[in-house]
Design a protein that fits this description.
The structure is a homotetramer of 308-residue chains. By secondary structure, chain A is of the alpha/beta class. The first copy, chain A, has 11 helices and 9 strands. The first copy, chain A, is globular. Chains in contact: A-B, A-C, A-D, B-C, B-D, C-D. β9 of chain C pairs antiparallel with β9 of chain D.
């Protein structure tokens, strides 16, 4: 089989590409459930061992994928039902706490590039409370306990000259949040997952992933606090999709000498480096989807911790 | 030869895809020259007959292509030397006039989608004078004769519910410009032309071209005034590039039954409809290139007519 | 009494400034009601005669003012309860029709100037249907009758070189809507009305009103179709507020020779021309308020006509 | 004399309001010069002692004010002649260094509020080099020594929940620049200085200044590195201008009991808190002026250090 280089940020797709036997891969557990009313399919991939992590090409941890086809459709309430389910999954991954927490939400990506603007746009719609609680106390919101939300849009290296990880680390050290939630636009392998899939993971962000690859590690190891990453695939890597299309064709032609093909495609596809593919209505989609994610975070941080 | 559907807005590429004999295609004249100092290669394709228009898949008229590799590079003066050469080509295509003219510049495309924002961004940087001249006379600019520039950003159908041609036609009828200059982002067939090629034509805009396909005809026939179209390729159509990559591979495998391939690729590529491919630094590129084009228009309309 | 020049776009304020006896001004009827649950006070000023129009400095017609203090506050549903009441008032002013109508919404103002961006931002959030209904019929929305919404952001004269009225007139003639809804940011006389008052009128837009004064008449007389205008005061004219402050002080100093003061203030305030005053959080307020107004229009045009 | 509360960020205005004797105020030196060709008047106020700092209401240090009336006018080169003079003044205030320096430029303010967007827009046009030099060395720019520029847009507290000083301090500690340049929009006392005056100071930023008051101290004392602040007045505080207008009127009425007036105005002007006044073309002005400032920084950091 021709095996082009895998280029996906989704654990779900990484698992699929390993092949049939994956469900029995040692060290990988998979749970699936379906929310019928909201038409959301949830797949939870738990990578429990280093060997499994190596096989999957993803670090150990929990990867939740919510497939919500309705998310791309216009909706007057910005799919609040999806936000509700997203909030549940965020809460599952957040570290347990007996007391109020301070949550820093980091919106990665480039506001000026539509397909990469998810992070900044999510941050625009958050209900920011840290500065109010610190100045006036929780009484400002008529409650005795309350989590604090702060938010950062670090920008991209081409515009700052600094690595995102440098900026985030500095802000974390100064403001001491209890947990980070990092938002980013992702690359998928298949166009059919674009903008209708949410991945939530407790492994943080790994170097070299994301639409703009504008990232160093943002992990508990590097930052000293737990890092939840929320991502939505908004683009398909150009070289990947061409490779996939070729592969499909070639699979059916057994007489072809595949090795020769692989060599050639690397020649032919060099021009596709640093190119990505996205839909023509990406602006409207990003705008809508960012509201859905923001509201999920607002619900998770607002409601849950309050009840503790 | 496998002959996938042609998807390019560039006359230069249309000509290339016709094949070797094109230089002798009756009814098509080609002129080429090279500005050494600015490293700009200009190709002028003149389609003189209906038959030639049919063969080329482009209407009769003049198509000037400026290939300026420096255009994608940062430059403190936004490549004023390219703006100067662009101004010369615009002036060649503008109808001769003994007197001042009123020029309406129309910036097509969607400001919110980075790769489609060329038209709106060009319009942002024009030197708008019509309202001043009409209210205070040309004396406001210390001259006795002066062209007037007005500008329109009609938006895209998904946001207006109206066809671009309806909006432009209404504004033309109310404000009676002498000539239109229409700016749009184009689709190219090859990634190597992206953002470094300017096409200027006196045929206006044809339905179904451009990045967002957000256009009906904007031509002298439909609007009643001459229409100069200026376009820069900012995207490659996803299905096209996959087709091209396949074609290159398959050309070398004579044993393949090409017909079967063509059928199959149409199946496999259905998911690529409404997808486009663009570079990861498209925001910075569009910002820079739009200044170059604006300045070309400012020079052409400002300087030249003034000398009459 | 020192009587500085009146500078307000609100009929409510114009009425107040006429003085105590206004409720008995012949030709002016006033109705007031209060929606307790939503805390919205509605004042309807009906100017029935030419004489009354002259005394009020406003054309004959109906002016509805909704005072909704909650509107400036953040709200997760963008104050849908206010949108509902706004929809009712829009429907009252819309011409009765037995059949579907085509409504063109025009967002006046300058997107780049925060306090003047209400119109463009309202247009961003409308549910645009005209192009869908025209291409696929009302069946696309699973209904047999349906109004069509289209929208236009004409821009400001400094950027287009054209008067707004020229652009709107051209588009109206080409697309033949049954009715226009025009949105604009207004100037108020008092800071306490900023961003919490909506004025809806069936008189259209008069020259010289609005934040940017970027307007000629947009009226049934000039355009040939009924024009509903919706405005929200987002700024106070700088000269007005200084004049008002002075007046308050001077009222209490009977010994002052007021005529001398008036002369002087015109001298002193010349520097305030073309200045306006607005709040420091105007960006967040405009963003929220524009959602409230968009939703009001979506409800009015969507729900009501459907039931006919 | 009625003496309303001073509200200006300009040392020049603070000096004027102290009165006639200021030129002889001990501990304050003033230098003035005039660049005839560029029509730029430069006033350098040096506050040398603590007593003088107290009298002026500004910390000890050097305050350079460039009055450049041409700056508000459109210009095809964005007033490069002013950028050149600005670069000279920046270089005078920069700490001397024998070697390359790393400069972090911080753009304060709120991108969404036009009059407060100076800082973010200046940052947009900088020539960012730190990441390139760190990855590829100065050879990437064909030189053996080169300063590094990085840039940060920290956002405003209402959107981040964090104080600007927290964010800047964190980033400074992580990235260790040699010097900071901080850009902000200022409040002036007089409308005639708006957008045509640049203040450059080596005292950094003091709490409570700037358009949005979105700032804690950003000073050498708080951050550990020298801080150059560059500001341009884009607004006039509303309460200030009303107070000034009143004062002018009242000065001429000796019979008035000024104390009573002062009390009253505080009552009347309460509604003006958190309001500011700005010009109607502020968007175009900020766009142009930000290019002038960016280019001044690009020249200063690029040219000068290179020559060492």
């Amino acid at each position: 089989m021709v095996n082009f280089q895998m280029r996906t940020d989704l654990a779900l797709e990484a698992r699929e590409s390993i092949g049939e036997a994956d469900s029995e891969l040692r060290g990988v557990r998979v749970e699936e459930y379906y929310h019928e009313e909201e038409d959301i399919r949830v797949t939870k991939v738990m990578i429990d061992t280093k060997n499994a992590a190596k096989a999957m090409g993803k670090p150990m941890g929990i990867y939740v994928t919510m497939e919500a086809p309705a998310m791309v459709e216009p909706d007057e309430d910005y799919h609040r039902e999806i936000s509700g389910r997203l909030a549940e999954e965020i809460l599952e991954l957040l570290p347990q706490a007996d007391d109020e927490q301070s949550v820093l939400v980091v919106g990665l990506g480039n506001r000026e590039v539509t397909a990469d603007a998810l992070g900044p746009q999510v941050v625009d719609n958050l209900f920011i409370t840290r500065h109010i609680v610190r100045e006036y106390g929780t009484a400002a919101y008529n409650c005795s306990k309350m989590n604090q939300i702060s938010a950062l849009e670090p920008g991209v290296m081409a515009k700052t000259g600094m690595e995102t990880a440098e900026i985030v680390k500095g802000v974390v050290e100064q403001t001491s949040p209890d947990v980070l939630i990092v938002i980013d636009a992702l690359a998928a392998r298949s166009t059919k997952r674009l903008n209708r899939t949410i991945q939530i993971t407790n492994t943080g962000i790994q170097p070299g992933s994301g639409v703009g690859n504008h990232r160093n590690a943002l992990t508990q190891e590097s930052l000293g606090v737990p890092v939840i990453a929320i991502g939505i695939p908004t683009v398909v890597d150009a070289a990947t999709i061409v490779g996939d299309a070729l592969e499909k064709l070639l699979e059916e032609e057994e007489e072809l000498e595949n090795v020769r093909y692989r060599e050639r495609q690397q020649l032919h596809f060099a021009e596709l480096n640093n190119m990505y593919m996205t839909g023509k209505d990406i602006d409207a989609v990003i705008k809508r989807v960012s509201f859905t994610v923001s509201e999920g975070i607002n619900i998770a941080i607002g409601e849950t911790f309050l009840e503790h």
